[in-house]
Write a structure and sequence with these properties.
By secondary structure, the chain is mainly alpha-helical. The protein contains eight helices and two strands; from the N terminus they run ααααβαααβα. Strands 1-2 form a two-stranded parallel sheet.
Length: about 180
């Protein structure tokens, strides 16, 4: 079982990942959309438990966040697609039965720590507030994106694994807001 953020740090499971034709085609669809000026920028990958969604997310993180990628299939995809050499900064979010905003912002702060420590500190502080407005989140993501691009990176790559756990929490406690801003 893959735990995205933890396994990304340890670089586990990438060597064992088998890039199937279906996964290859899906990765190429995502790359193609990213290369369009107005292509899709958000995807939802759903399927039964144990079908490799988290492992594929780990593979995509390697593909977009490493140059060159660790996985040989990701390296081949970069060459095949002529993908921009600028790497994305991954923001890996593990779903849990809690409000999404603090987890989202905490993960964003962790990802920015080495590139923009003062911005990471500010975001981390905001993530501890009891109420975080949608507007605050949008502004922080925009500022983070500009900072990352100014540092020479391709942008931010948000990966939310186990998103359903956030949905479960919101269904149990609808008074705590909804997930529409995300």
């Amino acid at each position: 079982s893959v735990q995205l953020a933890k396994d990304w740090q340890a670089r586990q499971y990438l060597d064992e990942y088998l890039l199937t034709p279906t996964a290859h085609d899906l990765a190429m669809q995502i790359i193609t959309e990213l290369q369009k000026s107005k292509g899709d920028r958000a995807w939802s990958i759903t399927g039964p438990y144990g079908t490799g969604k988290s492992a594929f997310a780990l593979f995509l993180t390697d593909l977009f966040s490493q140059n060159p990628p660790t996985h040989p299939g990701a390296r081949a995809l970069r060459v095949e697609s002529k993908l921009d050499s600028r790497s994305f900064i991954p923001v890996l979010i593990q779903g849990q039965r809690s409000p999404i905003a603090p987890v989202f912002l905490s993960s964003l702060a962790d990802s920015l720590q080495k590139i923009a420590p003062s911005l990471a500190r500010d975001i981390s502080e905001i993530s501890t507030k009891s109420q975080i407005s949608d507007q605050e989140i949008v502004l922080l993501v925009e500022e983070s994106s500009k900072t990352i691009e100014a540092a020479g990176h391709g942008g931010l790559l948000f990966v939310i694994d186990e998103f359903g756990k956030f949905l479960e929490y919101t269904a149990m406690y609808p008074e705590n807001g909804d997930l529409m801003v995300m």
